[in-house]
Prior knowledge:
13 strands, 16 helices, Transferase, Pyrimidine Nucleoside Phosphorylase, Chain A, domain 3, 4-stranded antiparallel β-sheet, about 15% strand, Aldehyde Oxidoreductase, domain 3, 3 domains, binds uracil, Pyrimidine Nucleoside Phosphorylase, Chain A, domain 2, single chain
Amino acid sequence: MTAPLHTPALIAKKRDGGVLSDVEIRALIDGAVTGEVPDYQMSALLMAIVWRGLDTRELTTWTRAMIDSGERLRWDDLPGPVIDKHSTGGVGDKVSVCLAPLCAAAGLFVPMMAGRALGHTGGTLDKLETIPGFRTALDPRAFGRVLKRAGFVLAGQSARLAPADRRLYALRDATATVESIPLIASSILSKKVAEGAAGLVMDVKTGSGAFLPSLDRTRALARTLIALGRALGLPVRAVLSGMDQPLGNAIGNAVEVQEAIDVLKGGGPPDLVDLTLRLGAEMLVLGAVARDLRDGTARMARARSSGEGLQRFALGVRLQGGDPRVVDDPKRLPSARHSRVVRAPRAGVVARADAGLLGRAATLLGAGRARQEDRISPGAAILMRAKVGARVAAGDALCTVHFDDPARARAALPQIAAAFRIASRAPAPPPLVVETLGRLR
Ligand code: URA
């Protein structure tokens, strides 16, 4: 018989800078899943980890325990490499929605287990659920069926895959305990190992809209992901990408699906297109489908221009119960009741469009959650009309704000206005990819 868990003592140990043993860590993670460790104790422990961290051994055990909390999928029977991409979280980051079908069209299998809005950043599941009928809760068999037929699947963690992360992710979102390198790394890699990926490209965001805004912390997170991946047998390549301003023009849920569809149709904003092709190229090289990044980018571009990526998207949507007519008829996606334009207070060049402030404002509008049980407002959105480097006259539109609840808009609008800075001279263009770490293959 195992000794009863004395959770307060373990919380105190971590709070005071102690190191948890393997047995203690496994008992805590198991307890989080069974309910033996209630949410209030787990939240306190998570906050202690935010402050004190986990050392390499603790982090590996913590992540293994999260993986072992559920099933592990295997894809030995698939006729192609199984490679995934994950982002550490950004504002306007809808890359997964267009990237996964493009990679499938280019020869990969992408078993993407995605998350919900977390803190001020959007979540792929919340976005996809704005497609009428789209189901993100798939059991492992249905997950496999969609993956085999469409070449990609975009779903949430079923109760059977990494259930510990599902539990902790929701708690972290509601208790300001997201911003921790070991918690982010274990959250991401537990899902990726459980879903059976053979390689992972990480889009590690840096800048004001990232969870870890400074480049030093971003690099530290990327290195942790690579080292933890190695310990778990999962090759990880990290692309550090800029998140000082939102990616693309749309921030919100339905609007981001629409923008991802635009990319699949050959349009879309250039920064979103470039990052999607680049991350896809990295995945194709990691999966040995492409020789090098140039070849990978060309294959991604062909998957887009041929329309095959779009067809894969429509197939995946249909297989997951969604209405594929959204592809040709965006009005089938929900929209908000009201809108307001935010205008430039003076003439000049947009020098800042702060992704962190805009992401928090979008959450206030209802695009994200303040509490676990909050419902998302699917049409709430900020649509950028001028990004960094754009020349504007006084009174020109900077963005359009879409909302259902005027009270929420009143709270968000001043933050949105404060996110923009107009200067007399153009700033240096913000880099899309700052650097890459980890082996390409
Ligand atoms: N994405 C995840 O899956 N988990 C995190 O903690 C942050 C981003």
